[in-house]
Design brief:
With 532 residues, the protein is mainly alpha-helical. It has helices spanning 8-24, 31-45, 64-76, 86-105, 110-122, 124-129, 136-156, 159-176, 180-189, 191-194, 201-229, 231-247, 263-266, 274-285, 290-308, 321-334, 343-358, 373-392, 398-419, 421-426, 430-441, 457-460, 476-486; strands spanning 52-53, 56-57, 446-449, 467-469, 491-495, 507-513, 516-522. Helix 22 links the parallel strand 3 and strand 4 (467-469). Helix 5 crosses helix 16, helix 7 runs parallel beside helix 9 (180-189) and helix 11 (201-229) packs across helix 12 (231-247). The radius of gyration is 25 Å and the shape is globular.
């Protein structure tokens, strides 16, 4: 138990990062607001089998996150604060599992295991995603659990190890679909290349049975949900949502090489520390061990698979941030006796600090309302002070440097959030959503022009769906005319467009939506909305 004391301060740093995000940032539009609103509709309608968005079955994601949010609300009441600790709990789980995986891969490297938690938490990408109420850190936990179970299965061939794999696959599917298998496939296909002992045929047979059993457990939800949700929902949840992203993305379609430029971002700030590169040279020139081969197969396989998939987003590979951290920790461990000062890291922080201080001088246009000169100066000053500390500090060990750089990640998260605090506050949709709720309660039909991402449902605690008005060129005029004709006393939600000037006399509610204005206008006043 004493060895786990190494995790306490890194866990505290993760928690501080989350608290910074909660204090400065409302639930983010549009992903977080969508997922919380889907959970709200589940809670409101007491429909826990099939998730719904704006009253219709939501086939884009399985239900585990929505179930956990509802469990939180059952325990602590309806709120938006306690639910934001859900990803933190899974991030802590990744921290613990990563620590255990490191010790399995390099049982004689106690130093590397000790610095690994600091390396993982010091990674700005991992810490930031751990503050987001999304699926990817959750999936990262199940990926880590599956990999831990798989490595243990090779080492001990125990039923309990395969049971861990089964549980991880089942809950991974319930978190974000069978995509979990894409994160695991390279490691299991090429196990003989990295395994520290001979891989028997029984491993593949038992491993396949464990995966099949995990899929079967997930089907305990998927089959009844498909029946309850109807043919269209069944097609979406079982096939369409995933095949569409693989073959010809209906969203986020990007070129094959798209992930490559993001790799340095994922590895920040450690690629700015010379000690890491000293270790990388030793990794490939002197000590290419089985653990490194394991990580290269994991990362290489995942990057190839996800590069071949048509739809691409950075958070699709967030479950594999752990692999980057394991590699970095091993490289730093191999260079631990060579003390190198973090001058490049300090220089980058110094430059970023000055950029924050000077940024308000160059902000123009739509960003002007979000300018808080004091916040930019304080945020930049914090980073400059930290950079100065790194320049003058006399470090006695590499471990001390690693600890200090990890703390720098928290300071960066603070600086970014505080400098744009006015913009973040403007994204709070509570007041606007409550107006929609009051309108619906009074019997007014509320229409929404264009695609609706459920962003108002949770904030307004809405009980009824909005009536969607298709804004495509082919249907907009017709559907808009029909809504105005059928609901003359109704209200329309619409968004500002470039080049159009709105008549403020017919707008009775508005708020900010990203860098646009979202407004409420009575249907009968629609033709007077735009100033001609």
């Amino acid at each position: 138990m004493s060895s786990y004391k190494n995790l306490l301060i890194p866990i505290l740093l993760l928690t501080i990062s989350l608290l910074i995000a909660i204090y400065f940032r409302p639930i983010l539009i549009i992903d977080e607001t969508r997922y919380v609103s889907v959970a709200w509709e589940m809670f409101d309608k007491k429909e826990f089998l099939v998730p719904h968005l704006n009253g219709l079955p939501y086939d884009h994601k399985p239900p585990l996150l929505f179930w956990l949010i509802n469990l939180d609300w059952f325990l602590f009441g309806i709120n938006e604060t306690s639910i934001r600790f859900i990803p933190l709990l899974f991030a802590i789980g990744i921290l613990i599992l990563g620590y255990k995986i490191y010790k399995l891969l390099w049982p004689n490297d106690s130093y590397g295991a000790e610095i690994f938690p600091w390396v993982l938490v010091g990674g700005v990408a991992f810490s930031f995603y751990s503050t987001l109420l999304m699926f990817d850190i959750m999936l990262g936990f199940w990926v880590a659990l599956a990999i831990y179970g798989g490595v243990k299965a090779i080492l001990d061939d125990k039923i309990s190890s395969y049971a861990i794999l089964t549980i991880a696959v089942a809950f991974g599917i319930l978190t974000k679909s069978p995509v979990i298998l894409a994160h695991l496939l390279p490691l299991y296909l090429f196990a003989p290349l990295w395994a520290p002992k001979r891989v028997e045929k029984s491993f593949y047979i038992k491993g396949l049975l464990a995966v099949v059993l995990g899929v079967a457990l997930a089907l305990i939800w998927a089959i009844p949900a498909s029946i309850e949700g109807g043919a269209s929902y069944a097609k979406g949840i079982l096939w369409e949502q995933y095949a569409g992203r693989v073959v010809d993305a209906f969203a986020h379609k990007r070129p094959f090489w798209w992930y490559i430029p993001w790799i340095p971002i994922v590895m920040m700030p450690w690629i700015l520390y010379r000690g890491f590169w000293v270790g990388v040279v030793r990794v490939f020139k002197e000590r290419l061990d089985k653990g490194i081969e394991f990580l290269l197969i994991w990362l290489g396989g995942v990057l190839i698979i996800f590069s071949l998939i048509s739809g691409k987003q950075l958070h699709y590979i967030a479950p594999d941030f752990l692999a980057f951290a394991l590699f970095i920790a091993r490289a730093l461990s191999l260079s631990r006796e060579k003390l190198t000062k973090p001058y490049l890291f300090a220089t980058i922080y110094l430059l970023f600090g000055f950029i924050l201080i000077l940024a308000p001088l160059f902000i123009k246009g739509k960003l002007l309302p979000y300018l808080d000169m004091k916040a930019f100066i304080i945020s930049g000053g914090v980073l400059i002070f930290y950079a100065g500390y790194l320049f003058i500090k006399r470090f006695n060990s590499q471990k001390e440097i690693i600890h200090t750089l990890s703390i720098g990640g928290v300071l960066l998260i603070f600086a970014v959030h505080y400098s744009i605090n006015l913009y973040l506050k403007s994204q709070d949709l509570t007041r606007f959503s409550k107006i929609i709720d009051n309108l619906q309660k009074s019997g007014v039909v509320v229409g929404h022009l264009g695609k609706y991402h459920d962003q108002f449902h949770f904030y307004g605690r809405l009980h009824k769906p909005l009536k969607i008005i298709d804004d495509s060129k082919e249907k907009k005029s017709k559907e808009l005319r029909e809504f105005i004709k059928n609901y003359p006393n109704g209200v329309i939600v619409t968004y500002s467009k470039r080049g159009l000037k709105y008549n403020k006399d017919v707008i009775f509610a508005s708020t900010k939506f990203r860098l646009k204005d979202v407004v409420l206008v009575k249907a009968k006043d629609w033709n007077r909305l735009v100033v001609k």
